[in-house]
Amino acid sequence: MFRASLTSPERVARQIRERILAGRYPGGTILRQEELAAELGVSRMPVREALRQLAAEGLLILHPHRGAVVAELSLAELEEIYEMRAALEPLALRLAIPRLGKGQLGEAEDALDEAERVHDGQRLSQLNWRFHAALYRPAERPRLLSTIELLHLNVDRYMRMILTVMQHREQSNLEHRLLLEACRAREVERASRLLQQHILEAGQRLVQFLKEKV
Amino acid sequence: MFRASLTSPERVARQIRERILAGRYPGGTILRQEELAAELGVSRMPVREALRQLAAEGLLILHPHRGAVVAELSLAELEEIYEMRAALEPLALRLAIPRLGKGQLGEAEDALDEAERVHDGQRLSQLNWRFHAALYRPAERPRLLSTIELLHLNVDRYMRMILTVMQHREQSNLEHRLLLEACRAREVERASRLLQQHILEAGQRLVQFLKEKV
DNA sequence: GTTGCAAATTTTGGATACAAAGGATACAGT
DNA sequence: ACTGTATCCTTTGTATCCAAAATTTGCAAC
């Protein structure tokens, strides 16, 4: 029979991933297999598979015989990801709106409500994804959804930094509320326009924020 | 210093990938590590990493403790991939057209010329990708390009089947020529409209073809 | 002091060996 | 005959060990 039985490479991958996203391993960090293995209480073998997994997700770059380096995202690449999101997410939303039920709308609203109360970066990032994913899921496009998720994953490290800036959060919340209303009203065109604009503007704010931070 | 030194997992991944795309391992096939290892003259370890790589590419599904299964693409998923391509490729083309040089236009044209003479499925698939990639590359959006490449990879198995059907090829070549002309003339809007239409229609033809084949 | 080379060290890549999980099979009980 | 269960076999998962590659260090020559 089936059993979930999370296998070590997956557990290890999850832990390393979270460390990268939390900023504990900034871009450029060299990850040593032995070190990770010892720290996570496994041998190097599962670590190697985890590293390959994370490399496939775009969080690492594997240099043969030289090790795994945490991927650095240039501002250009960051903007690129937002361009891709701006192309894909409105597509998902368009397909989803006709099938949106009370359940998803409620889930999205709950995420927004909590996001206004909470202040932890990791949690805010989770809620942000939950909001978006709830709206896209009814489209029933698994590949599209997981591609979008991967893009989110890749900007998440930087997202978390700006998610604690109050000005950004207020603007973002406002846009989210407007988007949700458009979805409720089944106004496909307006919703997808709002979403595209929301993504592009969030991208611009993030790039701006990172530029100033240096 | 640097050395290319293709590492075994990559070699192994490439070979398995080619077998999947060529139809030698159809969807649903269970891949046994030991068997692959023996056949490719390595131990199970590089095979495992290769399998993980291919799973990340979407060609396999890894079931913990139960093995790797070649991914089956339902017609719905196939259409989904074409929807994604129709969203992403016109974006890449728009960004690329202003920067298209003689080099890329020539490369694209060469690919079309050869595609009209050649009849081998694998080669045709290569040429088809070369044509598209040549037009997108000047956009200088590496993630966008590799995402598109991944989508191509995932439909390639089915593409190869229809690429030997003369009627499809003629239609496709015609559309490619029109697209190339629009690019030469720097008509961004027309070119991106042609491309989107080309992708959606190719997807429809493929779905139709596969439906009839059953 | 700087540059070039070579040995030594570190670190990754790959193979073998062992453990554990899943599935198949045979047997016992009803 | 059928069902449930225990055991065996196959296959995957993980650890350990050895080999190969890359980096670092030390030494020598200029």
Write the layout of secondary structure elements.
2 copies of one chain form a homodimer.
Chain A: H1 8-21, E1 30-31, H2 33-40, H3 44-57, E2 60-63, E3 67-70, H4 75-96, H5 102-117, H6 121-136, H7 142-162, H8 166-184, H9 188-213
Antiparallel strand pairs in A: 1-3, 2-3
Helix pairs in contact in A: 1-3, 2-3, 4-7, 4-9, 5-6, 5-8, 6-7, 8-9
The first copy, chain A, binds a DNA duplex (30 and 30 nucleotides) through helix 3.
Structural overview:
Chains A, B: Pfam families: FCD, GntR. Chains A, B: GO terms for molecular function: DNA binding; DNA-binding transcription factor activity. The structure is a homodimer. Chain A is mainly α and about 210 residues long. Chain A contains 9 helices and 3 strands, in the order αβααββαααααα. In chain A, helix 4 packs antiparallel against helix 9 (about 190-214) and helix 8 packs antiparallel against helix 9 (about 190-214). The longest helix of chain A has 26 residues, at about 190-214. In chain A, about 35% of the residues are buried. Chains A and B meet through helix 3, helix 4 and helix 7 of A and helix 3, helix 4 and helix 7 of B. Chain A binds a DNA duplex (30 and 30 nucleotides) through helix 3.
